[in-house]
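Help needed: design a sequence for this.
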């Protein structure tokens, strides 16, 4: 299926918007509307698969990217969503201490099955009842955050309080590994 480009003038740092959203991006747009979050999902021509690619395509700071990482508990196989600031390297031991059980990164099949979205497009949503969730405290310090919206080419912006509204029951903690690229989020 081909999508028509709305404008040849790029709205986001060289990115172009499509006139019709893909199925997954439309699903995220619907969820945002149901949660009364005023944000428009944008599908870009550039990849937003990684936090670095997303920041470049959007034209924002890497720290403003909320990357949704899916893990699973090692023994009980429960899904765990960790939403981290772009440059943050997640300290899996910190998450394990909170859970009382080690975690391992989820493979693409587990991620797709549990969230309904592919890796690189997982939005910060609790897609499964009882999904465990941890949120990087650094994201709460920013005026604007950008997150994946269902595909590796779709994003939406939101405020920290909106992120909390999407992730009801999520624990806000310091999830940084000592090797994280930045200690504090910076916005110029």
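Sure. Designed sequence:
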């Amino acid at each position: 299926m081909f999508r028509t480009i709305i404008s040849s003038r790029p709205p986001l740092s060289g990115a172009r918007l499509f006139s019709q959203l893909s199925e997954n991006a439309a699903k995220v747009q619907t969820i945002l509307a149901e949660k009364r979050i005023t944000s428009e999902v944008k599908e870009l021509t550039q990849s937003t698969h990684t936090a670095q690619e997303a920041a470049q395509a959007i034209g924002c700071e890497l720290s403003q990217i909320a990357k949704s990482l899916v893990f699973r508990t090692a023994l009980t196989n429960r899904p765990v969503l960790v939403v981290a600031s772009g440059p943050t390297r997640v300290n899996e031991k910190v998450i394990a201490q909170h859970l009382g059980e080690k975690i391992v990164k989820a493979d693409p099949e587990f991620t797709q099955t549990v969230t309904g979205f592919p890796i690189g497009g997982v939005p910060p949503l609790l897609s499964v009842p009882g999904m465990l969730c941890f949120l990087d405290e650094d994201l709460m310090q920013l005026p604007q955050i950008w997150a994946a919206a269902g595909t590796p080419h779709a994003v939406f912006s939101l405020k920290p309080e909106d992120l909390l509204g999407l992730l009801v029951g999520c624990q806000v903690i310091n999830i940084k590994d000592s090797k994280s690229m930045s200690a504090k989020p910076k916005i110029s």
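Strands lie at 42-43, 65-73, 79-85, 103-105, 132-136, 145-148, 154-158, 171-173.
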